[in-house]
Design brief:
Blueprint lengths: L1 H16 L17 H14 L4 E7 L5 H9 L3 E8 L2 H11 L7 E3 L12 E6 L6 H11 L3 E10 H6 L9 H4 L4 E5 L3 E7 L1 H7 L4
Parallel strand pairs: 1-2, 1-4, 2-3, 4-5
Antiparallel strand pairs: 5-7, 6-7
Helix pairs in contact: 2-3
Amino acid sequence: MENFYGNSYNFYSQSYWKNKYNNLLTPNGFTYYPNAEYNYLVRIIDDLNNQYKCNIMDVCCGNGLLLKHLMEHCRSQIIPFGIDFIKPSIKQAVKVVHPNYRNNFFLSNAIEFDFSTNVFDFILLDPYHFTNQDLTRLLQTLIKQVSNSVIFYTYADVLINNNFKSVVDFPVLARSSNMNIFNYDEISIAVLSSCRSIVTDSPII
């Protein structure tokens, strides 16, 4: 497991930051602005949310570009939170992308982070970044800390490389029948809603 995260850290550090990019796209793995991908998430959050203001935690947030897009395009006022284990990405998040919310972004591996200090309306997570065992444990934590939904997503290149058709093809997510699934050409999204009742009445793990 340590090799999994060590390899991930080395890959993302090298591919995202070896040339000290000053743009906002590269630290998120894009060579273009992912407007379509992000807008699908905007629509889903708008459909699920009926509050004037909501907290959103992006697990493995990069520099917070997705959260910035949600803040600019969702109907509700979004209070962003993010966590990532790549130091330059978090540094860019707090200094450039989200300076007004610098205290809401954390440098840590998500599997070691204490989520118990806050309850979030939405939690965003790409399961690609975790081992199956760690993802199982992480979800058991996250579903206690969310009031609306955990939104799983992954991009088309991950699906192609893993021979998946949907984000729910990740083994841990495949165990659940409680999710709404939205598959698009650019991104696959699965929504686990009403998590507090699901964790007690119909566990996904």
